[in-house]
Design goal:
Blueprint: E1 2-7, H1 9-15, H2 19-36, E2 42-50, E3 57-61, E4 63-66, H3 68-77, H4 82-88, E5 104-108, H5 109-114, E6 126-131, E7 136-137, E8 147-148, H6 149-161, E9 172-174, E10 180-183, E11 186-187, E12 196-197, E13 207-208, H7 212-215, H8 244-252, E14 264-269, E15 271-278, E16 291-298, E17 301-311, H9 316-332, E18 336-341, E19 350-355
Parallel strand pairs: 1-2, 2-6, 5-9, 7-8
Antiparallel strand pairs: 3-6, 4-5, 10-11, 10-12, 12-13, 14-18, 15-16, 16-17, 18-19
Helix pairs in contact: 2-6
C-alpha cells in the first residue's frame, strides 16, 4: 500500500517555519499504515492547513456507494486474517443479510480500492486539514502544553482510509458501523452511549466508541481512556500511538495485514516492570548477565509482556543499548516506544526501543 500526500500551498504557508517538520510528521503517520497493511493500491490524500479558530484536525474522504450484498461478498473475498475469519464466520459481526434493512451503504474511495470495489487509480481519495495555530510537537518527546501532531495525522488519515462512521445519518451507513455493539448480539449501527467495537457479534467488547449524541462529534472515534491516536479527544503532553486495537479495526474494515509472522507494531507507554533474568541461574549454571532474558511490562498494556534475550553474541551491543534505554526510562518515569513482533514464534519480542 502506497499513501501519497499532496501538500497544499496553504499547508506550507500556514505552518510557516514548522512546515517541514509538520510534513515529516504526516508522512511518518502514514507510514504506520503502509508498514502494517499490504494492499496493492495507491491512496492519494490532499493535505491542507488553515488558521481558522476551532480547527484541530479534519478529514474529508471521498465516498463510494455500494449495495450491501456486494459489500458482504467483497469483504468475504478479501478476508485474509484471523480477525477477518472471526468477523465473517459463525458468531461474527458481519452478517450476510443487510442489518440496516435497506439503508444506503458507502465506503471511502481508499477502502473501496482495498476491497476491489473500484480500480486502483491516481485520483484524489480525500483530504486531511489541520489547524496550524494549535500548539503541536512534530517529533521527539511531546513538549509541555502541546499535542502530538503525528497522532493527530494518524487519526485523520485513518478516516480517509475508512474509519469513518456514517451511522444512520440520512439512512446511510459505513462498514465500521457493523462492528458497533452494546452487548452480545446487540448491534448499534447508529452508535451512542456505551457502544463498543466488536468483531464477534458483541460477545467481546474490545473498546468503547465515542458517545456522539452527547457531544455531536464522530461516532467511530474512541471514547476517553488510554492515550490513542483514534480517540475523539486528545490530551496535551502525551504521545497518542496507533494501538493494536486500532490496527484490528483497520484490518476488519477492508485492509490486508502484512504477513503476520514478523509483523511489527509500535506501542508507547510507561514501564511498570523491568527485569533482566539470568538464564539458567539456580539450575547449576553460573549466572551471566550477558545471557539473560529481559522482561518489560507497560502501565498502558498491563496484560502483555515484552522482552528479548541479552546474549553475548553479535547482537549483544545493540541489546545492551536497548536495555540501558529501557532502564533509564524506567528510572526517570518517562514514556518509551517499543517496536515488537506481533505473532508467530517470536511474538512479543522487542526489536527496537526509542524514547517516546
Amino acid at each position: 500500500m502506497i499513501i501519497t500526500p499532496t501538500f497544499t500551498s496553504g499547508f506550507t504557508t500556514n505552518f510557516g517555519t514548522n512546515a517541514a517538520a509538520a510534513k515529516a510528521a504526516w508522512i511518518a503517520a502514514a507510514k504506520v499504515f503502509t508498514d502494517a497493511f499490504s494492499d496493492p493500491i495507491h491512496i492519494n490524500i490532499t493535505v491542507d492547513a488553515v488558521t481558522k479558530a476551532g480547527v484541530f484536525g479534519e478529514s474529508f474522504p471521498g465516498l463510494v456507494t455500494i449495495k450491501y450484498a456486494d459489500l458482504f461478498n467483497q469483504v468475504v473475498a478479501h478476508a485474509s486474517t484471523q480477525n477477518d475469519a472471526i468477523a465473517i464466520g459463525p458468531g461474527g459481526s458481519m452478517p450476510a443479510t443487510d442489518p440496516s434493512n435497506g439503508g444506503i451503504w458507502q465506503l471511502t474511495r481508499a477502502q473501496a480500492k482495498a476491497l476491489g470495489v473500484i480500480a486502483d487509480d491516481t485520483k484524489d481519495d480525500g483530504g486531511t486539514t489541520f489547524g496550524s495555530t494549535n500548539a503541536f510537537t512534530f517529533s521527539g518527546p511531546i513538549a509541555a502544553n502541546t499535542f502530538d501532531f503525528k497522532g493527530v495525522c494518524a487519526h485523520e488519515i485513518s478516516e480517509v482510509l475508512g474509519r469513518f462512521g456514517l451511522s444512520g445519518g440520512n439512512n446511510t451507513f459505513s462498514l465500521i458501523d457493523i462492528f458497533s455493539y452494546t452487548g452480545a448480539g446487540m448491534r448499534s449501527l447508529s452508535g451512542g452511549a456505551a457502544t463498543f467495537f466488536s468483531i464477534n457479534n458483541g460477545t467481546t467488547l474490545l473498546k468503547e466508541f465515542n458517545d456522539a449524541p452527547s457531544n455531536h462529534l464522530d461516532t467511530r472515534d474512541w471514547a476517553g481512556g488510554t492515550n490513542d491516536a483514534f480517540n475523539q479527544f486528545s490530551n496535551s503532553n502525551v504521545v497518542n500511538p496507533v494501538s493494536p486495537v486500532d490496527l484490528q479495526v483497520m484490518d476488519v474494515i477492508g485492509y490486508g495485514r502484512v504477513n503476520a509472522n514478523g509483523s511489527v507494531i509500535e506501542t508507547v507507554g510507561h514501564i511498570t516492570f523491568l527485569r533482566a533474568h539470568e538464564l539458567g541461574s539456580g539450575f547449576g549454571k553460573a549466572p551471566n548477565f550477558l545471557d539473560a532474558e529481559v522482561i518489560v511490562q507497560l502501565a498502558e498494556d498491563p496484560l502483555r509482556s515484552f522482552g528479548f534475550q541479552l546474549r553475548a553474541d553479535a547482537n549483544q551491543p545493540t541489546r545492551t543499548d536497548m536495555f540501558d534505554l529501557l532502564r533509564s526510562a524506567f528510572i526517570a518515569g518517562r514514556p518509551i516506544r517499543l517496536d515488537y513482533i506481533t505473532t508467530g514464534p517470536r511474538a512479543g519480542e522487542i526489536i527496537r526501543v526509542a524514547n517516546a
